[in-house]
Every structure is written in structure tokens, then in C-alpha cells.
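Complex record, two chains
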Amino acid sequence: MQETLKVSVWRGDGEGGAFQDFRVPAQANQTVLDVVTHIQRELDPTLAYRFACRVGMCGSCAMVVNGRARWTCRTHVRKVVQDGRLELRPLANLPVIRDLATDMAPFFDKWARAKGTFQPKDSADGAVPEEFHVVPPSSAKRQAADAGIECIGCGVCYASCDIVAWNGAYLGPAALNRAWTLVNDVRDGARRDRLDAVAGDAGCHACHSTQSCTERCPKGIDPSGAIAGLKRTLFWGMFGLDR
Amino acid sequence: MSARGQQHLWVAQRVTAMILGVAVVVHLVTILVAVRGGLSAAEIIGRVSGNEAWLMFYAVFALAAGLHGAIGLRGIAAEWLGWRGRRFDLAWLAIGLLTAAFGIRAAAGLYAA
């Protein structure tokens, strides 16, 4: 007889809901996203969830699996299953649209508030600024920017952050990591505005450095380190120093 | 309060933490040394009365402790109780300065004793 997984899936919307149990055939190689897709295609087509690339690039499929936020397309069931059980919930700290799909708008609105858009430097004569000519990949600034640039915006860090849960205005790890990436980009011309945007109780100074974001980032990025970098840069900036 | 002001509170809390780190060590070592030969009010007053260095030390210590504590409590209250905004900020400032004033008053009293 084939083994089955006992899967509890949270069903509901912003008003509330409850767990619904499903039994899904266990496979030797199976991701959590495979399990959710099996439920939606074979057992209950009304299940709402979100995915796109299935290969860890798009950042759409994050959910809370057995209590931890994870990218489900790259999470093998055998690594997270407990006594043959999976419990799937939508990402924490975000409004639920339905079932496993959350509204990511607050998450991305905060990227905008942290000025997460690249703002090219201008040069006086309208020519291409000198910083654009060559950016050596081995330069310290570029390596600092590259450290955080692979963020896929999955929201795992945001859902894992206690400060976000306690302080609704807090920009969160991903937006601050993006800001730090651009602060280190020598071609960017909005450094001052960006540092202003990430200062204070809703910005980097709210972070307690508990590092759940760094621990759980599926891309191995260190948002906690990025936030510490913002604090450091803002601190020395008070004395006119660039560190 | 502006984001800049909030940043300054953050900086103040870190700087006062550094002061407290040194001050607490000096304070504890002094206690250990002082109690060796038995402790009496006369001995304490003998050490600190009329001594500007001890007065300054405890004035700075009390000010750092008052501000550090109030800023920390402000953060906890904002996160756990949702106490945010200008009125709470002013209240925490008052609590911090009042706490510091009690300590400075005690130090001044011993100086004058």
C-alpha cells in the first residue's frame, strides 16, 4: 500500500477560517508545492494558492509549512514532514485573500516607501556619469551590493519577522535589504533620500537583530546584516562620515 | 517625532549604554572595595562628601541611566502596548529626566553632606 501524507490546509479568507485535512500520496521526491498542486488538481479545485516558476526564481509560492515560512517549490516534503503530517498556512504578517494566497501589496508598498527603485546618477552635462563606465565586480562597494541583490521578494523574511508583527509601520527585512543594496550601488543617485526614508522607528532603527530573516531567507541573503549596515551608515552620516 | 529624532533616540540609547557599561563596573568595584572593611554611612559620606569627581561621576551615571531606561521602555511600550505618538514621547522624556533627577539629587545630597 502506498504511504499517504496527512496534510492540514488552512481554508478561509480575511474574516477567518479553519484547517481542512487532506490525504495525499507520498512520493520519493516531492516538494510541498507538489502536494498543494495535487490537492488543488485532484481533491479540491476550489483551493486558492499562488505559484509561477516552480524553480525558486519568482518568489510566489511561499507559505508557512509546519510553523515556518518557506519557499514551497524548493522545499522537499521529506525534509519538513513531521510524523507524516504537513500543516500549511498562508504567510504571516500579511492580509489573507483566500486559503494560502496572501495580499502582497503591503509588502511591496514598503519597498516603494524604502525607495527601493534604482535612481541613476545624473551628470551635469547630460553625459553618462563616470561611475557607469566601469563597475569592477571585485570592488568592495559592488560586492556589498551583490550580497543582497538576489532577493526574489518571496516574503519569507517579512512573515518571519517579530518586529513586523509588533509594528505595522515597520518596513521589514526585504525592503531594508533592498535599500542597503542600492545605498552600496555606486551608480545610484538617491542615496541621501533613501537613507532618510529608512531611518527611525518604522525603519532600520526598529530592528532588534533577532535575525529570523537571515535564518529563514531561502536565498541565503543576510537582511539583518543589511539593516545593521544602514544603522552604521546613518550613525556615521550624522558626523559627515561615510562608513 | 521625526525619523531623525527617532534616530537620535536610538543613538542616545547606544551611547548611554556605553557610559553605563563603564559606570556600572566602577560602581560595583567601588562597592566591593568599600564593604571590605565594613560599611557605614560615615565611611560613604567620608568618601563622596565634597568630592567633585564622585559628584560628576554619579551625575553622569544617573543621567545615562534615566535616559537609557526611558528610551528602552518607550520601545517596549510601543511594540507591546501600541503606545505611540507625541504625547507618549513627551511622557517618556519626562520619566527619563525625572528618574535622572532623583539620582542626581541623591548624588548632590551626598556631596553636600
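Note: The domain at 3-112 of chain B is CATH 1.20.1300.10 (3 helical TM bundles of succinate and fumarate reductases).
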